[in-house]
Write a structure and sequence with these properties.
Elements (H helix, E strand, L loop, with lengths): L2 H12 L6 H15 L3 H10 L2 H8 L2 H8 L2 H10 L1
């Protein structure tokens, strides 16, 4: 996982207009892939994400929970919102 890559994806996502749902979905899938497969890294990343970044991570909340089936990652989202 590269935090720089993730930040770049989020910056690109911010520029996608609300009506362009397909591009937004594509960017969300790209973000999910960029997070990687290491549950501990993803947990720490979400835990340390600033509010702006966290907003975009919530767009893929369900995909993250499905991918990791992790109560502790789920709790990060639930307790922060």
């Amino acid at each position: 996982m590269s935090q720089i890559d993730i930040q770049k994806i989020i910056e690109e996502r911010k520029r996608i207009p609300a009506y362009d749902e397909q591009s937004a979905e594509d960017k969300c899938q790209e973000l999910l892939a960029a997070l990687g497969d290491d549950e501990n890294e993803v947990y720490e990343f979400i835990k340390s994400a600033d509010d702006d970044m966290f907003i975009y991570l919530t767009e893929i909340y369900e995909e993250i929970i499905e991918k990791f089936e992790s109560d502790r990652i789920d709790n990060l989202f639930v307790n922060r919102e």
